[in-house]
């Protein structure tokens, strides 16, 4: 069960069993300095759960706060009475708000990506840059890897974040570490995507792999390939080069309007 599911279940269970009417709950004595609306919403959540769950609230819109729980994101009404997860569709404006707040969080996370430690396939004339969470044993990752020459030629630089299928010490992990630590890592990556193992490894590069695995965990990405676009949108699965470039062009046009 995900963190948000546990959190929502805990909220509902506690509210049904024990919560008095919210209007009757005193969040702070009248003599104290008045709390902000955001603090009131936080207090309601903590009062309902009866536990000190670690979450953050961020401003989002006139009606909602963006609630961050680990690497999951929900919406909380400004009065603290309603918590939303899953898909929340604004029918009038055709916006999926949960998807939108995930994009916001992804864009913030992208600022902390150590690109200098990633395996990069630079474009000849860069127009776009994407980050792809990949695995050398994943069939669709290998299919996507074959698109790299076309992507580079079309102006797309590709940064790889490695997510090996096994934990540290497993054959998959060691094979991935060896690929990153080869003298010519891009060539080793090309070979690995053709099922040809890299020859050696070293401790420094293994540390780089540990960092990349933690980075994927921070974003909450587990499936491969996952393509992270500049606008923060995450595309799961294989996307052909020309379709991906068309998507990037459309996003840039939409953001410039």
Tell me the radius of gyration.
22 Å
Which outline best applies? Answer: globular
Q: How many beta-strand runs?
A: 11
**CATH class category name of the largest domain:** Alpha Beta
| H/E element sequence | HHEEEEEEHEEHHEHHHEEH
Strand neighbour order, sheet with most strands: 7-9-8-10-11
Helix content: 40-55%
Structure description:
- Strand 3 and strand 4 form a beta hairpin.
- Helices cover 42% and strands 18% of the residues.
- It has 257 residues and is an alpha+beta fold.
- The model is unreliable at 9-31 (pLDDT under 50).
- A 5-stranded mixed β-sheet has the order 7-9-8-10-11. The protein has a 4-stranded antiparallel β-sheet with strand order 1-2-3-4, with helices on both faces.
- It folds into 2 domains: 3-110, Disulphide bond isomerase, DsbC/G, N-terminal (Nuclear Transport Factor 2, Chain: A), CATH 3.10.450.70; 115-256, 3-Layer(aba) Sandwich (Glutaredoxin).
- Helix 6 (171-180) crosses helix 8.
